[in-house]
Amino acid sequence: MSIPKPLYADYIQQRIRTVPDWPQPGVQFRDITPLLQDPKTFRLLVDTFVHRYMDMQIDLVAGVDARGFILGSVVAYELNLGFVPIRKKGKLPYLTEAEEYELEYGSATVEIHADACKPGDRVLLVDDLVATGGTMIAAARLLQRLGATVVEAAAIVDLPELGGSRLIAGQGIELYTICDFAGH
């Protein structure tokens, strides 16, 4: 099922900076920092997610290291929910679960505290963008391993040409994004 984009998706997309050839040649990096720097745009961005999720039954918001922390923690605060960080390998100080995944330009591992959520928790999973889908899928697997249900995955940007949104849907996870860079 296709989730309609908000009317102001173009407004948000126009404020995302494209940095060519970063972090390596051939990669078009979609930089969300201009969205965060402008208070009106940042508020619109946060409110978009808050309004989407305020009537859903959600127990926790999980954000993926590092840009998912920015949006996810603010959305959790606004929804009066707890926040779960899903970090890059070696950054969490307590007992962890780990999941390796492939990136657009390499591989990585994410970790979650073993007590970050409990069986039956309904979790909203947040990151800044979906490229190959590896990060979101790995994060969802960690949450599911702990017994949580991923209610939905959410991101600002989808890069559909890299196939991540299809892979996420193939895992049975609903995905909501505000804008995409198809053909850009």
From TrEMBL:
EC numbers on record: 2.4.2.7
Subcellular location(s) per record: Cytoplasm
Phosphoribosyltransferase domain segment(s): 51-160
Keywords from the UniProt entry: Cytoplasm, Glycosyltransferase, Purine salvage, Transferase
Enzyme class: transferase
CDD domains: PRTases_typeI
Pfam families reported in the protein's UniProt record: Pribosyltran
SUPFAM superfamilies membership: PRTase-like
Domain of life: Bacteria
Chemical reaction(s) catalysed: AMP + diphosphate = 5-phospho-alpha-D-ribose 1-diphosphate + adenine
Pathway assigned to this chain's UniProt record: Purine metabolism; AMP biosynthesis via salvage pathway; AMP from adenine: step 1/1
Gene Ontology MF, one: glycosyltransferase activity
Predominant location: cytoplasm
Family the UniProt entry places it in: Belongs to the purine/pyrimidine phosphoribosyltransferase family.
Function of the molecule: Catalyzes a salvage reaction resulting in the formation of AMP, that is energically less costly than de novo synthesis.
Subunit structure as annotated in this protein's UniProt entry: Homodimer.
Name of this chain's protein: Adenine phosphoribosyltransferase
Organism: Chitiniphilus shinanonensis
